[in-house]
Design a protein that fits this description.
Structural class: alpha/beta
CATH architecture: 3-Layer(aba) Sandwich
Number of domains: 1
CATH superfamily: P-loop containing nucleotide triphosphate hydrolases
Strand order of the largest sheet: 6-7-8-3-9-10
Shape: globular
Strand content: 25-35%
CATH topology: Rossmann fold
Helix content: 25-40%
Largest sheet: 6 strands, mixed
Number of helices: 7
Bound molecules: adenosine-5'-diphosphate, magnesium ion
Radius of gyration: 18 Å
Order of helices and strands: EEEHEEHEHHHEHEHEE
Length: 228
């Protein structure tokens, strides 16, 4: 479904601080449900995930989603594909303080023009599935760490994406919350979502739900095998 051919990303091209974070990667992600990108800090995981998730364009190479080459599309089409295909869970969660959990979750759906009532119903169902209904009207700053994490998951699900991308999702979670997080990912994988995780947390990459581990170092893929 996702295919990369010779993909590179160079930052600050032509400047003294030019840096190539991803170097000529070839990669196919097909039927696997849960894939982990594993590698030390600075190995290019976030850069690669942002290219796959249409948040950044490669400086060389081609990216395909299904049969469509997305690397050549103008930004406005890329934004549309991103919104329809990917849901993102960021390490820092990036939830907006001062507004409620529900409002945070609904935000990424506003540009789709979906009717407010429908959207709210959809959001409520997601809150139910994540056992979070009691916090739906709570402001973000009132939530516990685990609740905030689930709101971030709910927000990633609002546009019903085929692919969830989570970048170091357990970096700020204790063991119990990390296990809870992986349990939710397991459920979503069973529901048919594809889940791409960047992590060097053993709790993530040794999880039974992981079908494939792609190891990265210095912007290159150094290992590519089945999960445990
Ligand atoms: N916007 C940027 N400008 C310059 N260098 C960057 C930028 N983003 C990332 N890098 C560099 O690219 C390398 C890979 O970063 P990143 O993809 O964030 O790795 P990881 O997620 O594996 O820690 C790092 O050395 C980082 O400093
Ligand atoms: Mg990173």
């Amino acid at each position: 479904m996702i295919s990369l051919k010779g993909v590179s990303k160079t930052f600050n091209r032509g400047r003294p601080d030019e840096f190539t974070a991803v170097k000529g990667l070839n990669l196919e992600i097909g039927q696997e449900r849960v894939v982990v990108f594993k590698g030390p800090s600075g190995s290019g995981k976030t850069t690669l995930l942002s290219i796959i998730g249409c948040m950044a364009k490669p400086t060389a190479g081609r990216v395909f989603i299904g049969d469509e080459e997305i690397s050549s599309l103008p930004d406005r089409f890329l934004t549309e594909i991103r919104r329809g295909t990917f849901g993102f869970i960021f390490q820092q969660l990036n939830l907006i303080q001062g507004i409620t959990a529900l409002e945070n979750v609904m935000l990424p759906a506003y540009p789709t023009g979906c009717r407010h009532r429908m959207l709210k119903d959809r959001a409520q169902r997601i809150f139910e599935a994540l056992d979070l209904c009691h916090r739906i009207d709570a402001k973000i700053e009132w939530l516990s760490g685990g609740e905030a994490q689930r709101v971030a998951i709910a927000r990633a699900l609002i546009n019903d994406p085929a692919v969830l991308i989570a970048d170091e999702p357990t970096a700020h979670l204790d063991t119990k919350l990390s296990i809870d997080f992986m349990d939710i990912m397991s459920r979503l994988a069973h529901e048919g979502k594809t889940i791409l995780l960047a992590s060097h947390d053993p709790l993530v990459f040794t999880s039974g739900i992981v079908e494939r581990i792609i190891e990265m170092r210095d912007g290159r893929i150094t290992g590519n095998g089945a999960g445990t």
